[in-house]
Design a protein that fits this description.
Blueprint (H helix, E strand, L loop, with lengths): L2 E5 L2 E4 L4 E8 L5 E9 L6 E7 L5 E3 L7 E6 L4 E6 L8 E9 L5 E2 L3 E6 L1
Parallel strand pairs: 2-11
Antiparallel strand pairs: 1-3, 3-8, 4-5, 4-9, 5-6, 7-8, 9-10, 9-11
Length: 117
């Protein structure tokens, strides 16, 4: 069964850091890219960052540029989101998705990040 599983969320003070991880399975899954999105309370889900699985090229939402870094470990089918200088407005459920070379995107259940002021 194809799936992605996020981890690493939690409670952090403003200005702090967190690292989110997301593992895609099965190991044989052919991935085109993986991305992070987030949904804050009362708001729609929004794009955060994406990484191309082959080239490693990345792109970010404007409000996380310079603070968040997306990276990957191809051997482990894992994508990371390193978040620093966190703000209360970064509070959200963070979702990972994998876009396979063939087939539909695969979404995880999300991991909650809470930034206290």
């Amino acid at each position: 069964q194809e799936q992605v599983v996020e981890s690493g969320g939690g409670l952090v003070e403003a200005g702090g850091s967190l690292r989110l991880s997301c593992v895609a399975s099965p190991r044989s899954l052919s991935i085109a890219d993986m991305a992070w999105s987030r949904q804050a309370p009362g708001k729609e889900r929004e794009f955060v960052a994406r990484i191309n699985w082959i080239s490693g090229s990345t792109n970010y939402a404007d409000d996380v540029k310079g603070r968040f870094t997306i990276s990957k470990d191809n051997a482990k089918n894992t994508v990371f989101l390193d978040m620093k200088s966190l703000k209360p407005e970064d509070t959200a459920i963070y979702y990972c998705n994998a876009k396979p070379l063939f087939g539909r995107e695969i979404w995880g259940q999300g991991t909650r990040v809470t930034v206290s002021s």
